[in-house]
Design a protein that fits this description.
Helix content: over 70%
Strand content: under 5%
CATH superfamily of the largest domain: MFS general substrate transporter like domains
Radius of gyration: 21 Å
Number of domains: 2
Oligomer: single chain
Shape: globular
CATH topology of the largest domain: Growth Hormone, Chain: A
Largest sheet: none
Number of strands: 0
Order of helices and strands: HHHHHHHHHHHHHHHHH
CATH architecture of the largest domain: Up-down Bundle
CATH class of the largest domain: Mainly Alpha
């Protein structure tokens, strides 16, 4: 009887997880996740593809790295401003304008690379392409979470939304580089950039004009006139933690590239990234099954501790088989860190600044990753891949210390005032 009861409970838990995802789709509609996924895919394509595109046209890997870093820094700098504008003016007009602007910026940047413009000119065009990214990933979180909050959704449902969004991010960063690589094999990386410009124009506009976009409009003039409430300390602390998670993944990316080159198989780097991304996506989907009693701060500490521990074996990895094995296991920590970081941001941000908070959290992570790629690349060239991996492990240890030192505002449960206000139709 005990065995049968346990089996029934397990079956009920599986149905519960699927039902939770169905409930989320019921609130957002089936089309929104599709267009938001396709709309964020160009980000992964141009970030990864910039190195290939500029290296192909200029003949210099160093130039490709500099230009790619400039693109990422443009995104990091403008991302929070895009979120702030969305909070003030609503997502529809902001996302629509930036989507069309980004499509043009990508096309001009691609043309500049094909014309072999000087590096300084390419850097400027790359910054513009990065700065005009509409931020669909974080804005989708800022749109979907209030939808489920207003419908009376609990913490588990919000966690499911964030799990689904992070999984879509993971899949985009697996599929995006693959599409760029395919374009490079079939003809030229520029083909992928043309597809990226078309995708962001069509799907970015579709995301902006989706009926759920109305829920992301300022709901009361009093909110717009009340000014910008200050951000709690916890929001800033979480951003710091996400910066170091970005440093970890940037350093590991540089180490993976250096190690595959050292082993004489540079083409395997993309497949290694894909293995890490697939594992992260699987774990991200399963995060929705975590019980609510396992609070967010506890999850944050466990996730950062796991990142520090699971990244250590990379320092001593020196074979391709070992790299695949270690990176696949290591990929399990990626989604939990991001999902928990966004969940803590959502819980702590004032509702009037939710889009800004989400885009700033994403920018913190991307910024740490982008800057570290350049630094860790030089470190790997001088001291070997193990030096880049060691930098990543050190960053993970710092992220754990940040999580350990952070103090919850009250407890790890739901923030009652936000739930009540949203459920009442804020």
């Amino acid at each position: 009887m005990d065995t049968k009861a346990q089996a029934e409970r397990g079956e009920h838990a599986d149905r519960g997880l699927l039902d939770t995802y169905r409930e989320v789709i019921g609130h957002t509609g089936a089309l929104l996740p599709v267009i938001s996924f396709l709309g964020r895919l160009p980000v992964a394509m141009i970030q990864f593809g910039s190195v290939l595109l500029v290296t192909e046209t200029s003949g210099s890997l160093a130039t490709g790295g500099v230009v790619a870093c400039a693109l990422a820094l443009g995104q990091v700098t403008m991302g929070p401003l895009v979120g702030r504008l969305a909070d003030r003016r609503g997502q529809r007009s902001v996302v629509l304008g930036f989507s069309l602007l980004n499509a043009v910026a990508i096309a001009v940047y691609t043309l500049g690379a094909l014309l072999e413009l000087p590096t300084a000119a390419l850097v400027v065009l790359a910054v513009l392409a990065g700065a005009s990214i509409p931020g669909i990933g974080p804005l989708a979180r800022a749109r979907s979470v209030p939808l489920v909050r207003r419908a009376g959704g609990d913490g588990r449902l919000v966690n499911t939304v964030l799990s689904m969004e992070s999984t879509m991010d993971e899949l985009s960063f697996v599929l995006g580089p693959a599409l760029v690589g395919l374009a490079a094999v079939l003809g030229h990386p520029a083909y992928a950039f043309g597809a990226a410009a078309l995708l962001v124009a069509l799907c970015g506009s579709g995301f902006a004009l989706h009926p759920t976009g109305r829920t992301a409009e300022p709901t009361a003039r009093s909110h717009a006139d009340a000014g910008r409430p200050p951000l709690p300390r916890e929001v800033v602390v979480v951003r710091v933690g996400l910066v170091f998670v970005g440093v970890l993944l940037g350093a590991c990316g540089a180490g993976i590239t250096a190690l595959t080159e050292e082993l004489g198989q540079p083409g395997q780097a993309g497949l290694v990234y894909a293995a890490m991304g697939v594992m992260s996506a699987v774990v991200g989907l399963s995060m929705a099954a975590l019980p609510e009693r396992f609070g967010l701060h506890a999850r944050w500490r466990v996730a950062t501790a796991a990142a520090a521990l699971l990244s250590l074996p990379l320092v001593w990895t020196d074979t391709m088989t070992g790299l695949y094995l270690v990176v696949t296991v290591f990929g399990a920590i990626y989604a939990p860190n991001l999902i928990t970081g966004f969940a803590l941001t959502e819980r702590s941000c004032p509702p009037q600044r939710l889009a800004e908070g989400m885009t700033f959290a994403a920018s913190a992570f991307v910024g740490g990753q982008a800057v570290t790629l350049a630094v860790a690349g030089r470190l790997a060239e001088s001291y070997g891949p193990e030096a880049a991996f060691a930098l990543g492990s050190a960053a993970a240890a710092v992220a754990f210390l940040v999580a350990l030192a952070a103090r919850p505002r009250t407890d790890d449960g739901e923030r009652a005032p936000v739930v009540t206000r949203d459920a009442a139709g804020r």
